[in-house]
Design a protein that fits this description.
Length: 276
């Protein structure tokens, strides 16, 4: 099964995202758990969620992926910023129990000059304080491009976070193709080598999802600007290799390219045509 979807807006509710996904030929999708700036989340409407779950079951959807607000920083140097990040993550994970057995992705954070060591410790502490054994969601650390003082642009850093988490079956990784290429992992010329490196450092059993984005910037630029599939420095051939690679082809793929719904529909059609 090819699980492919894109980032969708949650502004019209949960069932509306399922319908939008169907309309563009997707069988999965990603959404922000709340306004990306991190404001208060809307109250959950259980009947809306039930309608989405029914739609997903009837149409053989893959896992869906909630994305935390990207402004959260669990390893800030300010106590109130860390506390806010923890509160939002905690509340989001409680809400994810309405959508059991799916994924929740977040950016590990920026250490803002405190150093990688301190930053990783804050992230680990946050996760250990909020994760509960009864949760049915897998929390994913996103691979980052390494702009500024971002943590998580190397597999080693992600591994150190994972190793610090006590409930180890609740934590995994979401690999963003734009970010890893910007971070200096050459998935254009050596996808096999990068996946082998991931496997030897983190373990491919910890890889749960892929963000499919081309990059506006060259290799190792540490920038993080997404481009439409085939229009950036990764190029179409790279995506053909990624979606068909035997080690990752079973994973769900989520587009976060600069597109409206129709543009996403065209990219999904294109990717389906390249799937072997
Ligand atoms: Fe992200
Ligand atoms: Fe991403
Ligand atoms: Zn990005």
């Amino acid at each position: 099964m090819f699980y492919i979807g894109c980032h969708l807006s949650i502004s019209n509710g949960y069932e509306a995202m399922g319908k939008a996904a169907l309309k563009i030929g997707a069988n999965s999708f990603q959404f922000f758990s709340r306004n990306p700036r991190g404001s208060k989340a809307k109250d959950i409407d259980p009947s809306d969620i039930d309608r989405l779950l029914k739609l997903m079951e009837e149409n053989n959807f893959g896992k869906i992926l909630a994305h935390a607000p990207y402004t959260l920083n669990p390893c800030s140097n300010k106590a109130h910023t860390r506390a806010f990040a923890k509160l939002v993550l905690q509340e989001d994970l409680e809400r994810m129990e309405y959508l059991p057995n799916n994924y929740y992705n977040f950016h590990p954070g920026s250490h803002v000059g405190q150093g990688v060591e301190v930053g990783i410790q804050y992230i680990v502490d946050t996760l250990n304080e909020i994760l509960k054994s009864e949760y049915r969601t897998i929390v994913l650390l996103e691979t980052m491009a390494g702009k500024g003082t971002e943590i998580g642009s190397s597999f080693e850093e992600l591994k150190r976070i994972i190793d610090g988490v006590e409930l180890s079956d609740k934590i995994g990784v979401c690999l963003d193709t734009c970010h890893v290429y910007d971070a200096g992992y050459d998935i254009v010329n050596d996808l096999d080598g990068v996946l082998e490196e991931f496997d030897s450092i983190i373990g491919l059993d910890k890889l749960y999802a892929i963000h499919l984005n081309d990059s506006k910037n060259p290799f190792n630029s540490h920038k993080d600007r997404h481009e439409k599939i085939g229009y950036g420095s990764l190029g179409l051939e790279t995506f053909e290799k990624i979606i068909n690679h035997p080690k990752i082809r079973h994973l769900p793929f989520y587009l976060e390219t600069p597109n409206d719904l129709e543009g996403y529909g065209r990219e999904i059609e294109l990717l389906k045509s390249m799937r072997k």
